[in-house]
Write a structure and sequence with these properties.
Elements: E1 10-12, H1 13-19, H2 24-32, E2 38-39, E3 45-48, H3 49-61, H4 64-74, H5 80-85
Antiparallel strand pairs: 1-3, 2-3
């Protein structure tokens, strides 16, 4: 990917939270968890838009609720038989 083609749009906490429909508190948590941010000339925290969107995609990919929602919308839900095979519960043993 050519880094020159990425436009540099800087977002404050409020702008970033509005961009990905999350709270300002969530943006602060993401920063504490490692999302790179910088300061503008007024001392406000800012993040590049492409970094914010990459973080958002990463978190959606790791969210099991989101993944199940996508599977159900696309009809890509595994069959009950497969889910039974993949179950984490131990198999039932028949003792005579």
């Amino acid at each position: 990917m050519n880094h020159e083609s990425i436009s540099t749009v800087w977002l404050t906490y409020r702008d970033a939270s509005n961009r990905v429909s999350r709270s300002v508190r969530t943006m602060k948590r993401w920063r504490h968890e490692g999302m790179p941010m910088s300061f503008d000339q007024w001392g406000r925290r800012i993040v590049k838009e492409h970094i914010l969107l990459a973080e958002y995609r990463k978190r959606l990919a790791a969210d099991p609720v989101h993944q199940q929602r996508i599977r159900s919308l696309t009809g890509d839900t595994p069959s009950d038989e497969l889910l039974d095979l993949l179950s984490v519960s131990p198999p039932r043993l028949m003792v005579e």
